[in-house]
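Progress narrative, work stream C.
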Amino acid sequence: MRNCEVCQNEYRNTFEVIMRGRSHIFDSFECAIHALAPRCRHCGCRVVGHGVEADGIAFCCAHCARQEGYQSMKDQLSISFLE
């Protein structure tokens, strides 16, 4: 059994994630996200889905990117849920 690098839980079903050539061991996706997902520069939340990137900076959405001065940023969603 191996230990999760985030919570130190000893668990028989840990899994390995290799990121940028470095191995990481986790017991849950929650711990993997906590350790590896980038944080939005504006609001600080973890970027888990389809965030946006400007000048190599991660944002959770276009709104946050615009708040940091990247006015041309748009979210990728092309349909309106209000129709």
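Work stream C, second folded protein:
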Amino acid sequence: METTKVGIREFRAGLAEYIASDKPVAVTRHGQTVGIFIPTPGPSQADLHALQQASARLKEVMPLAEGEVDAMVSDFAAARKAAAATRRKRR
């Protein structure tokens, strides 16, 4: 894969463009490469559609009222806090 070389100032100025690209960028400073930026692909439309379908299916299979969701979140937070306290005591 071809790597584009750009100066650090140019890289900062065009960061949004480089993030949206799919090509790696070699960032240079005074002509020396100081880093390589490799953008990662975001979720595709197919991925988002599949996630929406899975979410709809989950709601069909496991309908929860608002209060039930809040209770589950509170239970999870309490369990996480207790586990953290246990870990701290072991140290």
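DSSP finds four helices and three strands in the chain. No further action is required on this item.
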